[in-house]
Write a structure and sequence with these properties.
The protein is mostly helical. It has 10 helices and no strands. The protein has one domain: MetI-like (MetI-like fold, Orthogonal Bundle). 82% of the residues lie in helices and 0% in strands. The longest helix has 35 residues.
């Protein structure tokens, strides 16, 4: 009985040693953690900017060309079903993208972020009440003025919700970019798997999780501030 209890307690200690080891690794390697966190933020930031620059105009275009909705949303849905490593492999033979791992990672991450941005932009604008549009047109607003002064301000909370979802997805998927040498916090995760070291794995997983939570809280706060400002005005 005592031998069995000792064996169980030792297993318990080993299974719970990962968390302090992970925190200890972060504290003892601050420069490396900071460098890889900066790389991760750079990959996520550039890919999100690219996804917004492509996704928002695409969503607006779908409200003007509803016949393209099935094709565009269907294509972005298909991208979401492709495993990340497989998508990296599909993009690798492309001449300019395949030359550098960071370009390849940014392109793949931007493709993954497109669906929520395009869909929420379309839904936000298409969901505006028709009488609101009719009143704006009756006041003499052109199509461009209607978009900038009426549709985008009203649809912005829904659009921000899509950007928020895309940011969290991108932060998580960006850890896989380390598999192709693009850097980021995935370096720790893959290194820890190879070493069978929970501490090193957690050194990559903990900052990535905190980054995703911070992005979600930040964008949620921006969304609430905008809604409160609009209601106040």
């Amino acid at each position: 009985m005592s031998t069995s209890f000792a064996r169980d307690s030792s297993c318990f200690a080993i299974s719970h040693s990962g968390e302090p080891e992970g925190l200890n690794f972060i504290l003892t390697h601050p420069r490396e953690v900071a460098t890889l966190t900066a790389e991760h933020l750079w990959l996520v930031g550039v890919s999100m900017l690219l996804a917004i620059l492509i996704g928002v105009p695409l969503g607006i275009l779908l409200t003007r060309r509803p016949r393209w909705k099935a094709l565009v949303l269907g294509s972005t849905n298909v991208v979401q079903t492709i495993p990340s490593l497989a998508l990296f492999g599909l993009l690798l033979p492309l001449p300019w993208l395949g030359a550098r791992a960071d370009r390849l990672a940014i392109a793949a991450l931007a493709l993954y972020a497109l669906l929520p941005i395009v869909r929420n932009t379309y839904v936000g604008i298409a969901g505006i009440s028709p009488p609101v549009r009719e009143a704006a047109i009756a006041m003499g607003l052109t199509s461009g003025q209607l978009l900038w002064n009426v549709e985008l301000p009203l649809a912005l909370p829904v659009m921000l919700a899509g950007i928020r979802v895309a940011a969290v997805i991108t932060i998580g998927v960006a850890t896989i970019a380390a598999a192709i040498g693009a850097g980021g916090l995935g370096e720790f995760i893959f290194r820890g798997i190879a070493m069978v070291d929970n501490g090193v794995i957690l050194a990559g997983a903990i900052p990535a999780a905190l980054m995703a939570l911070a992005a979600d809280l930040l964008l949620s706060g921006v969304e609430k501030l905008f809604v409160r400002h609009r209601q106040g005005s």
